[in-house]
Amino acid sequence: MPPESTDPASTDRSPLARRSVLGAMAAAAAAPGLLALSSPAEAAPAPSGVRAALPGGGDLGPNVIVFDPSTPGIQARLDQVFAQQETAQFGTGRYALLFKPGTYNGLNAQLGFYTSIAGLGLSPDDTNINGDVTVDAGWFNGNATQNFWRSAENLALNPVNGTNRWAVAQAAPFRRMHVKGGLNLSPNGYGWASGGYIADSRIDGTVGPYSQQQWYTRDSSVGGWLNAVWNMVFSGVEGAPAQTFPNPPYTTLNNTPISREKPFLYLSGSEYRVFLPELRTNARGTTWGNGTPRGTSLPLSQFYVAKPDATAATLNAALAQGLHLLLTPGIYRLDQPIQVNRANTVVLGLGYATLIPNNGVTALKVADVDGVRLAGFLVDAGTVNSTTLLEVGPTGASASHAANPTTVQDVFVRIGGAGAGKATTSMVINSRNTIVDHTWIWRADHGTGVGWETNRADYGLRVNGDDVLITGLFVEHFNKYDVQWYGQRGRTIFFQNEKAYDAPNQAAIQNGSIKGYAAYKVADSVTTHEGWGLGSYCYYNVAPTILQHNGFAAPNTPGVKFHNLLVVSLGGQGQYEHVINETGSPTSGTTTVPSTVVSYP
After folding, report:
1. Do the beta carbons of residue 355 and residue 338 sit within 8 Å?
2. What is the pLDDT of residues 126-180, one digit of tens each?
3. Is residue 582 annotated as a catalytic residue, yes or no?
4. Do residues 393 and 434 lie in contact, with contact meaning Cβ atoms separated by under 8 Å?
5. Residue 584, burial from CB neighbour count under 10 angstroms (0-12, 13-18, 19+)
6. Fewest CB within 10 A of the end CB: N or C in the chain?
7. Of 153, 391, 498, 577, which is the active-site residue?
8. Cα separation of 444 and 414, whole Å?
9. Are 353 and 376 in contact (CB under 8 A)?
10. DSSP helix/strand/coil, 356
11. Whole-structure pTM value
12. Alpha helix locations (H) across 68-107?
């Protein structure tokens, strides 16, 4: 790979058991940060009757905590945040822990719920921690299947014992990380684990998944990969194991067809900016291994730095004014959609900023324009049913965005769990050429506000646009189809799904004459589609005699191709009759052995 450089400051343009039901955890009290960004200049008074221009830049608020190597008491502050967030699965606390470039010694940053840790350099190697960034599952008796909603980004780690532990489940990205040693993806004691996602990272040593059922790694470098359970997928990964699905179940693509890394906050001298990595085709390896990554950057002054008390009207006024959005940690309640109408707009969340639509509105809508970047936030369904929660492009969008696609990265959707919520379809992609890079769309199976009708959500993801690529797709527990795909030439690299646990009986999931709704349905009108490394699991524990006809349904035509599919009955709680259409052996018994199809048709 040639050196990738630019002057970023020059441009301003084991088998799984069912996850145990947990009650909602008490909200953690917000704590003041150690260091905040400088305040913006005072805006001049507006003439009477004219709304004042909203300022760009400014203070990131109390729950963005910025450290430098001379900051006193770093470990104590990390421990304080972890103590608040360790068990706060459905709490209201949100934190971003940011480390200025430099070297930090003797740290162990344990990450709980809704906690993001990141370096503020252009390269991970600018911010070195001689220590660990740890996720374990002591809070849940060694079971890591609920270690959701946390992230690590843009740091170099020199683990104390040579191996860093990152025992996570869904919605826990590990991006732009350099581990100068090994990476252990399982909890202490090798308990159940259900992850996960790595991108643009280098692990010098071996990655040990151990008990992890599935994992997707993209555009990275690894020193080795130890084992596989059900579904390990790699695209553009130097050092990845060879293609051997189903035994062991490795799906390996030499390159990622199209990728563009997530935007990130960094320091240029004393100035905070947001870096926008460039689009890559046939990508392989990290973007930062041979120098400064390619791309452009924006000063913080071009962002409206939103606080949780911001109204949708204010956020839309900022967008209409030409500002981008930086959503600081917290919960934003919206009485109208955030409307992104301008090409190349960035909406970047910190610390799992969470959007909750009220009165059945859609949380965020994107116009049919080029180059929008949505990244790093959670959408939580409101108590009144929303027809949709996130829309990329309006119905009927048709413009080509091949040269400059919209990207949706680490944007997660939840229906129920923190409280009753409902939505007919969670995420809809109408715009052509959209890249969805890591999402978890989840109808909650535990927490509060959970029940077959209580958090009713029929469809997880619907793709109407042509030429859409999804890398790292996690969609679970919807009442009907988890994924519906209507666009032409769609591609998915890695899919993880569980059917809804709580179906009360066979009749509740009957799809006409078909037993159950497929997890991933390609419309009969589609002539070209392709998927690699896709898995669906069932655990119909309320009605264990339920039969699910198949995990995948698609037109039987040469242009619609699937590689390396699997279905699994978890402990015999429900069974699949086929893998895809009428193809693939039925699951049986209680052994959680996958039924696989290597190639279809």
Report:
1. yes
2. 999 999 999 999 999 999 999 999 999 999 999 999 999 999 999 999 999 999 9
3. no
4. yes
5. buried
6. N
7. 498
8. 7
9. yes
10. strand
11. 0.92
12. 74-85
